[in-house]
């Protein structure tokens, strides 16, 4: 992994932290959506990797997991669709970073259980 590449160099700006819903049904729906995105051990591993490294190129993620690139790409898409990560094409590479606001929302929703 290229330790000299800061996450800000390849990832789009982070979105603001979404508010924690005050409506219980909405909070339940958001928690269920985020939990579903984390419903596979590989996606949890990818999120942990991105939290620790503040940004990774897809090839770096593939090198660290015992999965094919196509499988990693499918998991990345699900995490991105849920808003847990953000990514951007950086020349020939695709860089992914954690979306800290959504991770903070996930933590708040779990703490409110």
List the helices and strands and how they pair.
Elements: H1 7-10, H2 24-37, H3 41-53, E1 56-57, H4 58-64, H5 69-81, E2 85-90, E3 93-98, H6 100-111
Antiparallel strand pairs: 1-3, 2-3
Helix pairs in contact: 3-5
Tell me what you see in this structure.
This protein is an alpha+beta fold and 113 residues long. The chain is 56% helix and 12% strand. The protein has one domain (24-111): Arc Repressor Mutant, subunit A. It has helices spanning 7-10, 24-37, 41-53, 58-64, 69-81, 100-111; strands spanning 56-57, 85-90, 93-98. Strands 1-3-2 form a 3-stranded antiparallel sheet. Strand 2 and strand 3 (93-98) form a beta hairpin. Helix 3 packs across helix 5 (69-81).
Low-pLDDT segments: 1-8
Shape: globular
Please state the CA-atom Rg, rounded to the nearest Å.
14 Å
Output the CATH class name: Mainly Alpha
Strand order of the largest sheet: 1-3-2
Query: Could you state the order of secondary-structure elements as H and E?
Result: HHHEHHEEH
What are the main properties of this structure?
alpha+beta; globular; about 110 residues; 3 strands; Arc Repressor Mutant, subunit A
């Amino acid at each position: 992994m290229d330790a000299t590449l800061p996450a800000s160099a390849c990832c789009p700006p982070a979105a603001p932290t979404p508010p924690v819903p005050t409506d219980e049904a909405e909070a339940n729906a958001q928690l269920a959506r985020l939990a579903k995105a984390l419903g596979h051990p590989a996606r949890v591993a990818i999120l942990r990797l991105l939290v620790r490294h503040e940004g990774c190129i897809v090839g770096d993620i593939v090198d660290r997991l015992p999965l094919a690139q196509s499988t990693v790409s499918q998991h990345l898409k699900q995490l991105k669709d849920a808003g847990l990560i953000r990514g951007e094409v950086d020349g020939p590479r695709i860089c992914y970073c954690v979306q800290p606001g959504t991770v903070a929302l996930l933590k708040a929703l779990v703490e409110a259980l």
